[in-house]
């Protein structure tokens, strides 16, 4: 029985649901932010006003011809006819310098916004050749929810392949496909594919095509081609062999032990961070190995290897001897004392004559990863009209009086293009920065990494090096923790401090490092996964940004078996590879695929896993699902947004306190209508029955008001008598929407739900959510 029939019968005040399962689906799209044009224009309907008019007249492709090409592209490749009477249309003419060559392009945009839907179509094409380089075609129905895909990554890949082979057949045949969809992409039903140029059988990722497929509608919604036909590629000969390359990488790779803070998944709103000791692979000379001469290089540095500046042993001892115990008060300092501290600092650093304004106290519920959650903040400026730009803002810790941040501008700084005579060198600024750290932060000087890199200044920058920046990282147990630091900046123009910032979380707990694995073992782990692969890479031999000297070289880069060149950090305690969230990367995704092969939920499980909604590491099809398992999956799928929880009433459960790790999950479950905010206990490890799953998923899709009218429903299962009377409507709707699978005309309401059953239910629920928030 399909959805249309369900509602037609409901309108007649009667609904009969049999044991027959039917098929229906809802098509949804994911709204995206349109690409911002390089040159802004005035928006008009039909004809747009463009800039760069003189250059525009000299290009081969006129504005009208560009519109014609854009319309033809949309019709031929995106099956979309443009009726300009229904759209707001803009045309932008853009010029840019790419690799020393001026590139002119047209950007044609059509937009539609009404009560039913929004459409944004954007086409960019080369103004000399007419080649279309980018298309975005995003459409969204008003009040429509994001969905999980209705197709697998493999099915989307076929759509992507067909599209590229049609729009760029030659380039398609000269490419290798990259599929990054196993990385997890929360909140989007879309799939992304990259086609990397292959020359002489070797990849060159400087030429690539990127495709985005809407996983719900099956439509290509984004196309981008970055391809240069003018490159000359060296012959594949005279190279060092792969064995030599492996040894070179092993020798050059420095496995550096560091502390890193990872924000728990979906917890960035609350700053719930976990610190782990990790090994970070570092390559001082660059992470690309020249396949000809066996030397390492950095394609992005133009040979700008930094010189390291540090204190000598005596200077470092003197620096650490300035350490003092700083007392933290129980209560915040009063306004007058705060004003005195701020005024004294400004007078000592910048001199007399500054007025302090807007002094105010702020207190946050959490310290947000910084030094304090209690602060005094103010603005300061010169009263003299000729010094109107001289001033800034300052913030101090209300419990210690320490400077948290100060930013100060001057008239000289605003005149950024004027020539100037530097009043201090970088080395002199380093000395001043070290003195400032010791003077203003005596309580933490022993935890400061004094080493600083000095990069060669670009002599072709006509503005000159106006500001010197220093970042002093935190050390714990002798290990660097980059998330906390003191930043100091000095103006070369005035010789004065322009910025001072202390980001230092005193509440972070650092794990012991006694049991970290050895650097030798972590190196073996690293190179068991990543191997040198021969590639073509582009380097710029010139340090003059106006006159680049580009060259294509044969080189070795580290890559895993999936063609991923970005290597990851390694947990120093477990030896496991970590993702950006600090979680273990599943190295056995193929094992997961093998486990679900042949399952009646294979498609659903594959899709949910690709979107990061299922843990694949220790996956079991027959795992019994608990209440908290179900709630977390549904909340994560809909979107874990704690700011929404802040608008929700406090939970009434007697056994759940606000500090509970699942508190906001439960609040959002209440907000999404998944559960009631009722008295009593919440038993998170209680197993979910099939009847309970049906009820929760119907609530989740916002059909509970219909389900409550049980008199409208009739069920004919063999075990219908075992279904609670109040749940008859929920069960009937759950089957109609395919949330629950029926076999042998038995619902089995009291059986516990398995992961396999849950995947089917959640997948169909996500594609049938009714948006009732508007």
From TrEMBL:
InterPro entries: SLH_dom, YcdB/YcdC_rep_domain. Keywords: Repeat, Signal. Residues 1-25 form the signal peptide. It comes from the Bacteria. PROSITE patterns: SLH. The keyword Protein biosynthesis does not apply. Residues 649-711 form the SLH domain. The keyword Repeat applies. It holds the Pfam family DUF4901. This is SLH domain-containing protein. It comes from Clostridium tagluense.
């Amino acid at each position: 029985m399909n959805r249309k029939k369900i509602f037609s019968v409901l309108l007649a005040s009667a609904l009969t649901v049999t044991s027959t399962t039917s098929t229906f689906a809802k098509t949804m799209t994911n709204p995206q932010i349109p690409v911002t044009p390089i040159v802004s224009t005035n928006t008009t309907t039909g004809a747009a006003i463009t800039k760069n008019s003189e250059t525009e007249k000299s290009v081969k492709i006129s504005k009208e011809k560009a519109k014609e090409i854009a319309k033809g592209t949309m019709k031929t490749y995106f099956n979309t006819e443009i009726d300009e009477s229904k759209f707001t249309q803009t045309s932008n003419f853009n010029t840019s310098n790419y690799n020393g060559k001026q590139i002119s392009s047209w950007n044609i945009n059509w937009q539609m916004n009404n009560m039913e839907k929004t459409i944004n179509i954007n086409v960019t094409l080369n103004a000399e050749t007419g080649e279309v380089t980018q298309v975005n075609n995003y459409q969204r129905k008003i009040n429509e929810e994001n969905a999980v895909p209705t197709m697998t990554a493999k099915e989307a890949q076929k759509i992507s392949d067909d599209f590229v082979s049609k729009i760029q057949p030659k380039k398609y045949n000269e490419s290798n496909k990259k599929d990054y969809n196993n990385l997890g992409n929360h909140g989007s039903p879309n799939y992304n594919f990259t086609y990397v140029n292959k020359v002489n059988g070797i990849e060159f990722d400087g030429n690539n095509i990127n495709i985005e497929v809407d996983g719900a509608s099956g439509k290509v919604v984004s196309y981008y081609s970055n391809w240069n036909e003018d490159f000359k590629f060296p012959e594949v000969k005279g190279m060092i062999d792969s064995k030599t390359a492996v040894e070179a990488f092993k020798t050059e790779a420095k496995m550096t032990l560091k502390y890193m803070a990872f924000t728990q998944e979906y917890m960035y709103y609350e700053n719930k961070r976990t610190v782990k000791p990790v090994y970070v692979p570092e390559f001082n000379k660059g992470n690309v190995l020249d396949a000809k001469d066996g030397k390492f290089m950095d394609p992005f540095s133009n040979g700008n290897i930094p010189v390291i500046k540090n204190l000598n042993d005596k200077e470092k001892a003197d620096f650490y001897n300035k350490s003092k115990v700083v007392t933290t008060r129980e209560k915040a300092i009063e306004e007058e004392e705060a004003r005195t501290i701020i005024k004294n600092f400004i007078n000592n650093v910048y001199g007399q004559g500054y007025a302090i304004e807007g002094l105010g106290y702020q207190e946050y519920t959490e310290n947000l990863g910084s030094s304090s959650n209690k602060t005094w903040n103010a603005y300061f400026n010169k009263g003299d009209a000729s010094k109107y730009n001289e001033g800034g803002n300052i913030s101090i810790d209300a419990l210690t009086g320490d400077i948290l941040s100060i930013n100060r501008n001057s008239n000289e700084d605003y005149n950024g293009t004027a020539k100037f005579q530097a009043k201090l060198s970088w080395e002199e600024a380093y000395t001043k920065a070290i003195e400032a750290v010791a003077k203003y932060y005596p309580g933490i000087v022993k935890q400061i990494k004094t080493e600083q890199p000095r990069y060669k200044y670009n002599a072709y920058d006509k503005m000159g090096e106006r500001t010197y920046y220093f970042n002093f990282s935190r050390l714990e147990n002798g290990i660097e923790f980059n998330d906390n630091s003191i930043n100091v900046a000095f103006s070369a123009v005035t010789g004065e401090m322009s910025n001072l910032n202390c980001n230092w979380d005193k509440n972070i707990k650092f794990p012991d490092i006694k049991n970290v694995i050895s650097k030798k073992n972590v190196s073996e782990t690293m190179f068991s996964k990543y191997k040198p692969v021969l590639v073509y890479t582009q380097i710029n031999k010139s340090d003059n940004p106006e006159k680049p000297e580009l060259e294509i070289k044969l080189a070795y880069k580290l890559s895993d078996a999936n063609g991923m060149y970005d290597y990851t950090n390694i947990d120093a305690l477990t030896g496991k590879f970590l993702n950006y969230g600090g979680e273990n990367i599943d190295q056995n995704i193929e094992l997961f695929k093998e486990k679900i092969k042949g399952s009646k939920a294979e498609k659903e499980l594959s899709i949910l896993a690709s979107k990061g909604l299922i843990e694949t590491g220790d996956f079991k099809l027959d795992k019994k699902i608990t209440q908290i398992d179900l709630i977390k999956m549904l909340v994560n799928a809909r979107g874990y947004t704690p700011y929404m929880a802040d608008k929700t009433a406090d939970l009434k459960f007697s056994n759940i306190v606000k500090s509970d790790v699942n508190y906001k999950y439960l609040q959002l479950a209440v907000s999404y209508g998944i559960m009631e905010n009722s008295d009593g206990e919440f038993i998170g490890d209680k197993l979910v029955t099939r009847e309970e799953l049906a009820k929760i998923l119907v609530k989740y899709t916002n059909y509970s008001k219909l389900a409550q009218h049980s008199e409208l429903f009739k069920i004919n299962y063999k075990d219908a008598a075992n279904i609670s009377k109040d749940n008859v409507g929920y069960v009937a709707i759950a089957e109609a929407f395919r949330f629950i699978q029926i076999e042998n005309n038995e619902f089995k309401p009291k059986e516990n739900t398995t992961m396999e059953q849950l995947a089917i239910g959640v997948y169909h629920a996500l594609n049938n959510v009714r948006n009732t928030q508007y």
